[in-house]
Amino acid sequence: MLEIRLHGRGGQGAVTSAELIAIAAINKGNFAQAFPSFGPERRGAPVVAFCRVDDKKINIRAKVYKPDVVIVLDPGLLSLLDPTEGMGEGGILIINTKKKPQEVAIAPGRSIKVVTVDANTIATEELGRPIVNTTMLGGFIRATGLIGIDDIKEPLLERFGKKLGERNLKAMERAYQEVSIGE
Amino acid sequence: MARQRKGIEVSIAMADAVAQANVDVIAAYPITPQTHIVEHLSEIVANGELDAEYVPVESEHSAMSVCCGSSAVGARTFTSTSSQGLALMAEIFYIAASMRLPMVMALANRSLSGPLSIWNDHTDTMMVRDAGWIHVFVENGQECYDNVFCGYRISEDPSVMLPLAINLDGFILTHMIEPVIYEDNETIRKYLPDVRMKNALHPDNPVSMGCFAMPEIYTEAQMNREQGILNSYPTIIKAWKEWGDLTGRYYHPIETYRTEDAEYCIVTMGSYGETAMEVVDALREEGEKVGVVKIRLWRPFPFEDFRRAVEGKKSLIVVDRAISFGGPGGPVALELRSALYGRPNAPAIVNYVAGLAGRDVARSDFRKIILEGKAKASKGETEGFTLYGLRG
Fold first, then answer.
1. For the whole model, what pTM was predicted?
2. What keywords are annotated for this sequence in UniProt (chain A) (predicted)?
3. The CATH number of domain B254-387, selected from 3.40.50.300, 3.40.50.720, 3.30.413.10, 3.40.50.920
4. Does the beta carbon of A109 lie under 8 angstroms from any beta carbon of chain B?
């Protein structure tokens, strides 16, 4: 089972990202869960969303405490929280930042793979505003290989409609190409 | 609709099930965490995908009043609520059962105020435990979907004619995206045909319902309710069996997991049963002879099924999601202690109350509850209850 935690701010679409990963995995015949850290939703406040993917039925009805993958949609959150909390060796940390993985001073000395995506720039260019949730999925897909771009197309277009969906898809594909994957 | 497996929010799947059940009337007032269910139903009706009356009432008291009226004329009726909404409709909630009005409610379980909280536990449903409704608890999205159809089959059966609540954990289930298998409409129609209820209000056949009762008849009316809900048991068994035969998914009043050779068991009700199974698997690897007993049917309480399920066990660790203040512990433990009282070689019962108002109960917590509970049972510490995770 792969457990994923997403950090974002209310309105950035962390929950939508978790949903799209889960639906893509389910459509492939896998089992998945996606859920928010339950509570009142406030735009701009730090939010957490969770996702689990497995090839068998998932029975856990609790939050993700030991994520294999963490996605950080807002680099500003890095000064507020430790994105690697609960993460074991071999974890993958995917951050929206202009920096290269080696320039990110998170978890030095730990065997955590840092992946960076300049999602603000990509999303601003492709969508006209820095809503980075779908862009970051490009980085996620490239870094984990858990699902393919093709798997997420259908749920993405269903969620956003054809016009907006295709723009989101383009942003995602660009992130897939432009992502920087650390050692 | 063709049979399909979907990744979908459980609330939406449940609303889709209600539409597939071809309901006639939906009356509800939005309240967290139930809101997505009725929001989606209002969309389905507004889009013309379901020929039903959606009554957007001004309160839950009115929602249940509308439901009583629509059920009384023989319309297939649905509502959904949570917590304070249930509290506000409590007056009419009791009346629905006393008038023997079939309907299905999705009760998205949430804590009751105060302090004000929107998160999940079972305090709301325990408030209406004694109202005479049939109460079913579900553990996952598929069970939510399936039990909408089973719920109507049971509720509308001429031998039952009682309202039925499907208890689903708020947020934990309502806001979860997971796979749900949708059955095709033909299967649903076969299992749940449209019904014409006997004794429905109709100008051609005037009857009185919900009359005032003098002391000379009130006792008998209550006995009628008691008999009615007890008589629902065989219909419930039959409805679940037939659903299982159609879909391969069977439901039972009491369900067990790895209990055959278990010396002790954790007992849960609602979605916690799934996490408990996961933890029991891990403990089994370590040689612990532990299993899970899950209560699916809460009213009418399946005493015989329960006694059979726990026969020969040394101890039961019962996880409640509500407190009966000043009472003997959680409502589930109270029920189980009564079910076993005075029986020879009855298992010892240790009671924990956990996960109040959405406090997360992780696998590590279940592990602690199970092992600590086992130790308590062996020391004979079986009085009262422990509020798990209470901070000092």
1. 0.97
2. Oxidoreductase, Pyruvate
3. 3.40.50.920
4. no
